[in-house]
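From the shared-data thread, chain only:
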Amino acid sequence: MSSKVNNVIIKEPLVISRDVNNKKSIAILGYGIFRWKLLGYASELAKGNKDAIDLYSTFFDNAFRWLSVENKSKQFIIKTTKSEYTSNENIEFVAQVYDANYNSIDNADVKVEIKGSNEKREVTFNPIGNGRYTVIVKGLSGGDFTFNGVASQLGRKIGDDNGRFNIGEINLEYQNVVMNYQLLKNIADRTGGKFYFPNEVNNFISDLSKQKSFEQRPVTLKEDIAIWNLTLLLVIAIFAFSMEWLIRKLSGLI
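Structure, as tokens:
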């Protein structure tokens, strides 16, 4: 930004910014900056122009915001909702895009390239507001995948980010095997039941017997076994008859 005196543009800059070794600074080489507000914005308000731009406040707000944002804060972030997916499960990507002052950008062009061992695909994200973007990818085969996303605006690159995920043969029910106590208790409460822990089995039997609808009923189990069809008994019988014949033979009874 350069200054102008008597409609003559001076080659010396009015505002200088510096960003070296993760340290930022802004220098204003002019004076009377407050007149931007008094002679510009205030004058327009006095004329009844409520749509006037407060250049003074806007400039310093953006300057302070730029100075407060660390360089390590990325302007573009992209990731998947999970790192491990099961086969036939949709892959959901989410992304966030910001400008140099870390304000959200809603009209950026966000794309991601997905690469697998035998597969490659490029998809475009859909904006959902407040600098956030999302897309759902279907039909990927199993294996390890890498992705590289790029965000741009009006042909100018804002930033890029990358990551990886895996699609395996893991069943969904095995991804979280820890008992969800609160969910089970809510289901029991809503259906008029009661939740028991394994060490409360005796309480369960006692509460069950107190129910009016509970009645003890004898149960008889009957099972028929045809012993003459058992091979083991046949072998034993043949062995017994053989021993009897042998004893008779040795005793001279035959």
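The first helix runs from residue 35 to 46.
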